[in-house]
Amino acid sequence: MPRSTDILLTALAPAVWGSTYLVATEVLPAGYPISMAALRALPAGLLLLALTRCLPPRIWLGRVFLLGSFNFALFWALLFVAAYRLPGGVAATLGSLQAMMVIVMARGWLGTPIRAGAVAAAATGVSGVALLLIGPGAALDPVGVAAGLGGAASMAAGTVLSRKWQPPVSPLSFTAWQLTAGGLILLPFALIMEPPLPPLTGTNLAGLAWLGLIGAAATYALWFRGVSRIEPGAVSMLGMMSPVTAVLLGWVVLGQSLTLMQGLGAAVVLGSVWAGQRANRRSVPGASVAQSNSWHRLHDRSFGKENPS
C-alpha cells in the first residue's frame, strides 16, 4: 500500500479524536472523568477481543499492560486533569509537545536519527496549535501543566514502544489487548476515587458508544496500524490534526467564533504536519524497516479476525 494511503488512514484517528472534547462536554455526565475513560476503554476492548478471539500470550502480558497504561489509562487520566485545571488551548498546546518527545524517545529506543527538519516541523506545529487555541490571558496552573506534560510523555512513550514491540497479530487484536488492559487499570480507580454514576440516558450511552467504538476501537486500530508502518516522528505529527478538528467542530456544531489568528494557526499546523511527513521519511534504520516489512507480509491479510495465539 502506498505510504500516502497509510498516512491518510492513520490521520483519520487523530481527526476523529478531535471530537472527544465536544462529546465529553455536551453529551456525557460531568464530574466522572475516570469512570468515563474506563467505560470508553473496557467495553470496546472486550468487544474487540470477542471479535478477534485472540488473547495475548503470557509472555506478552507485562508489555500489554504497560502499553495499555501509556496509551490509555495514564494518558487519559492526565488528559482529564490538564483539561480541568488549564484552559483548553494551553492543555492542547502542551499535548502537541508529544511530537518532539517522540523524536527523542525514538532515538533512544529505536535508534532513529534526529533530523533537524523533523524537529523544526514539530516546533512549528506546536506554535500553530498555540495560535489556534491559546487566547489572551491564559492562566498556567502548575499541577495542570505537569499533567499536560505527563500526558504528552505518556502518549509519546506508548507510540514509540508500540513500534518497538509488535506482536505477531493484527492491529485490531493489538488494539483489543491494550484497550482491555487500559480499562482494567482504570476500573478500580474509578470505583475508589469517584462517586457512583447516575443513571445514564440514551444520549449518554450514544456518546459513550461513539467514543468507545469509533473514538477508541476503530481509530486506535488505524493508529497502531500506522505506527507499525510509518516512521514514529511522522506518526506523532499526525496527532496535531486533533486540535484542528476540535476547533472546526466547535465552529460548525457549537457556533463558536473562528478568528483570523485561529485560521492562521490551523494553516501552520497543517503545513507542519505535511513538512513532518517529508522530514521523517526514511529516517528509520534498516533493521526497523526490515521488521516493519516482515509485519506487513505477515499481516496485510489479517486486519480483521485471526486464530487465537
Automatic annotation (TrEMBL):
Q: Entry's Pfam families?
A: EamA
Membrane-spanning parts:
34-52, 64-84, 90-110, 117-137, 143-162, 174-193, 205-223, 235-254, 260-276
Instruction: Give the UniProt keywords, A-Z.
Output: Membrane, Transmembrane, Transmembrane helix
What is the membrane topology noted in the UniProt record heading this document? Multi-pass membrane protein
Q: Which InterPro entries match?
A: AA-Vitamin_Transporters, EamA_dom, EmrE-like
Where in the cell? Membrane
Its chief place of residence is membrane
* Domain (EamA): residue spans on this chain: 7-133, 144-274
The Swiss-Prot or TrEMBL record describes its family as follows: Belongs to the EamA transporter family.
State the PANTHER family in the record. Answer: EAMA DOMAIN-CONTAINING PROTEIN, INNER MEMBRANE TRANSPORTER
What protein is this chain from? Answer: EamA family transporter
What organism is listed for this UniProt entry? Lutimaribacter marinistellae
